[in-house]
Design a protein that fits this description.
heterodimer; A: 324 residues; alpha/beta; Rossmann fold; 8-stranded mixed sheet; 14% strand; B: 98 residues; mainly alpha; 72% helix; elongated
């Protein structure tokens, strides 16, 4: 299977648990594995009982497994600081204020977090030579996964921007009379260079996501989760990123037959509804159900994580990446 | 100074005048027109880069913000042109000399 594996789904369905369990399984099978989480709640830290940050850190006690946590807020700030540094090198003090306002506006737009995460995801994929498999635990909303479908769109956008920039520079060059220096020159135009860089970045992202990535959705057996999953599947399919499989998490355990107390009746009824939901998934959803994971009474970590890993029916063998 | 020299000088002056007239009446407005067109396209470029300056949120602003350090002069001129401009027809009208 592809070297990059993404787990998505509604908030609170257990994406982090499933991602970590899958990472663990890959590591057990002898793959150098990296788990990348974008959960600001730092759940990976909770699962492995160990703090993680921006840099891949080996997970204690498990050979070949490393993890890192990305904080979108930090990424946006870093991006902002990078531009500010360029700004102070390039721009006269009088203009800095004016441009700063524009800059802050750009980083306050609704898509800024997603863009920052997208950038980091792609960067991690670009620098993944040290790993056989990278498991992405995406942010708890459809927007991250949706953004992954955007490279084509963004590339087209950059193309149009470059075309406009080129046309205007060309005209400025033509408008220069005699020996006058044109107002803008095509050769070495930093704006075109930056746009070109971005364009290549998006091209790489599109190629890699299209060829070297597999997508899984985690869901719970309830109506809300089912509906959202159905939408996500359609969304991803539309972007040519087909969902490889579904993981049903937090299934209610069935009581023994001889039990007939209030708790047992409650559980039996729940199991009944859930079974109906699972049936719906099997019959009407395109991607196969690759794992059914029951509720655990304790937090899933340590040996419990191993149990969950065993329940995952997702292969681990890696094909080498084609586009890195 | 004999006649040939005087004719020569007259021709030189005439040529200079004609050249000047041609440049002033024909070529210079054409260059100006091209420059204005270039400015217009640059405006479109900047608007496409920073639509949030007009309250239109854009997912690409995050990326185009990287260009800001290199767009100082363009950005300033853009804002100035936006303030000056009343309507498109007026702007386009400036490009014609009647």
């Amino acid at each position: 299977m592809e070297p990059f594996v993404f787990f998505g789904g509604k908030g609170g369905v257990g994406k982090t648990t499933v991602s970590c369990a899958y990472g663990l399984r890959c590591a057990h099978d002898g793959l150098r594995t990296l788990v990348v989480s974008t959960d600001p709640a730092h759940s990976v830290t909770d699962v492995f009982d160990q703090p993680f940050d921006d840099d891949p850190t080996p997970v204690e006690g498990i050979d070949g497994l490393e993890a890192m946590q990305l904080d979108p807020e930090e990424e946006v700030t870093r991006h902002l600081d990078d531009i500010r540094r360029d700004l102070s090198e390039q721009v006269s003090a009088a203009m800095v204020n004016e441009i700063n306002r524009q800059l802050e506006m750009a980083h306050g737009t609704p898509g800024a977090y997603e863009s920052a995460l997208f950038d980091r995801f792609i960067e991690v994929m670009r620098n993944s030579e040290g790993y056989d498999r990278v498991v992405f635990d995406t942010a708890p909303s459809g927007s991250t996964l949706r953004l992954l479908g955007l490279p084509d769109l963004l590339e087209g956008w950059i193309d149009r921007l470059m075309y406009k920039r080129r046309t205007s520079i060309d005209l400025f060059e033509k408008a220069a009379i005699g020996n006058h220096e044109p107002r803008r020159v095509m050769d070495g135009d930093p704006v075109l260079a930056r746009l070109q860089e971005r364009k290549e970045f998006f091209r790489f992202a599109g190629d890699t996501l299209g060829n070297d990535a597999a997508f899984f959705l985690v869901l719970n057996p309830d109506e809300l989760s089912l509906n959202e999953t159905e939408r996500s599947i359609a969304d991803l399919e539309e972007k040519d990123l087909p969902v490889r499989g579904l993981v049903a998490n937090k299934l209610t355990p069935e009581p023994d037959d001889d039990e007939n107390g209030r708790g047992a009746r409650y559980l039996r009824e729940r199991v009944e509804t859930e079974r109906a939901h699972l049936e719906t998934i099997r019959e009407t959803f395109g991607p196969p159900l690759v794992a059914e994971i029951g509720w655990r009474t304790a937090e899933v970590k340590g040996s419990l994580l191993e149990d969950v890993a065993d329940e995952l029916d997702i292969e681990t063998a890696v094909e080498p990446p084609t586009h890195v | 100074m004999d006649l040939a020299d005087r004719i020569e000088r007259f021709r030189e002056t005439l040529e200079e005048w004609l050249r000047g007239l041609y440049h002033g009446m024909i070529t210079h407005p054409a260059y100006e027109k091209i420059e204005k067109e270039a400015e217009d396209i640059e405006d479109v470029f900047l608007l496409a880069c920073f639509p949030d300056a007009f309250g239109i949120p854009s997912p690409v602003s995050y990326y185009t913000a990287e260009l800001l350090p290199y767009l100082e002069t363009e950005f300033e001129a853009w804002e100035r042109r936006l303030w000056d401009r009343d309507m498109l027809i007026e702007r386009k009208g400036q490009q014609y000399h009647f």
